[in-house]
Amino acid sequence: MSDPQSPSRFVPLQFERQTPERMLARARELRDDLARRRSVRAFSDEPLPEGLLDACIETAGSAPSGAHRQPWTFVVVRDPELKRQIREAAEEEERKLYSERITPEWREALAPLGTDEHKPFLELAPALIVVFREVFGLEAGEKRTNYYTQESVGIAVGFLLAALHHAGLATLTHTPSPMGFLGDLLGRPANEKAYVLIPVGYPAQGCEVPDLVRKPLDEIRVEL
Length: 224
Known about the structure:
Blueprint: H1 20-35, H2 52-60, E1 72-77, H3 80-101, H4 104-110, H5 121-124, E2 127-134, E3 136-139, E4 142-145, H6 149-167, E5 170-171, H7 180-186, E6 192-201, H8 217-220
Antiparallel strand pairs: 1-2, 2-6, 3-4, 5-6
Helix pairs in contact: 2-6, 3-7
């Protein structure tokens, strides 16, 4: 394994310049493709093509990170018993959330989505990808500072979601709170903290999603 703290060797940038017309076409193609991505809570149990998740995780691993620390681990869970345990633990935390922790304003915001403490998708989806954030590194048993870990892992998750959608899969970003049980169940070291849990697969037959409207460009873009 290469040492991320060693001086980097610089190489020529691999960059292919496009015509303005092609640039705009590519930007619009990606915009339209990702606009079709939706969070799915009803999955088929159909298995996934061999190597597909690995290719998408490699895409996520190409994301930029603070000081190139790459502070992420992607744990793929396919084992039915382990998925069952994750579901049970997640639903226990969600029951506490909906009955004890949630504020009236938060409950009102979630109401149109129809979500509750029941998470059958955690067992039905053929795979779960649990993304962990490496809070600090370990080199020969010594702590090593990582930088901008929240931002870095967030960017990598964005890459991952885009790659999975582009490959033809449905996903959901699930963040049961707190998520410490994921590190325990998956045997992750103490320097890693669960960041997000992503069920992955094909949508179930007849899957429906909320009829949402996204903010238009003039509400999200400010040009000065």
